[in-house]
């Protein structure tokens, strides 16, 4: 294998992200699917993966060759190695809990399942958080005159709590939500002196993406929390974080998202207080 061919998952992921804007449409489609569903790529057949990703099986071969592999099987080995290296204890626990629930083990199994899913999500983000991005986001938000908070549907509880916490920290903020349908007017007041925290996960609420696009075109910097490097929200963000939430029985927790959101909020409050002390000194 050519030395330039990615030999581990993180290198492969970085390579895909670097090339994503130059990839042909169908290749980009399978690339996005691969990063969002690495376990499926590891053990699926070419036919099943192609069907799930909405492409022809031949596209998988072209995708692999685009990255320097001699075929799809060689690429698949990188995804399988990722699973072997990963601590799978929580995944195994989730599988066991699902089995117990299906066998009628009672409501406690449901509770335990959600706890295990939350633990998986928190463990994942703890290991993957980019500290430089975290510091960049804090610096960007700390200097904003007003912090706008944008989220819809499943992400909305996180946005609501961010707005609550910012208020308690006496940081001027605006939750972009109006029962009277005045979202556009709220957004129109945002300027490059402000900042936005935007949150959206697949299947990405169209209204959230459109509002992020509009506010980005006004020159307002965005800190995004989303679930994929191919998320439409990421393209508008100055800084973005990828959060993978585990699920139980098809329901995804918000534990990792909430942990990240609150860490950002509290850290911004601390940074603003530090800046205030320095000005007084």
From TrEMBL:
Q: Which CDD domains match?
A: SIS_RpiR (cd05013)
Q: Which Pfam families match?
A: HTH_6, SIS
One GO MF term, please?
A: carbohydrate derivative binding
Question: What is this protein's name?
Answer: Sugar isomerase
Might you name a Gene Ontology BP term for this protein? Answer: carbohydrate derivative metabolic process
Q: What is the source species?
A: Mesorhizobium delmotii
Q: Which domain of life is it from?
A: Bacteria
Organismal lineage: Bacteria, Pseudomonadati, Pseudomonadota, Alphaproteobacteria, Hyphomicrobiales
Provide this UniProt record's keywords sorted from A to Z. Answer: DNA-binding, Isomerase, Transcription, Transcription regulation
Q: Where is the HTH rpiR-type domain?
A: 10-86
SIS domain mapped to chain residues:
137-275
Q: Which PROSITE patterns match?
A: HTH_RPIR, SIS
Query: Would the keyword Chaperone turn up in this protein's UniProt record?
Result: no
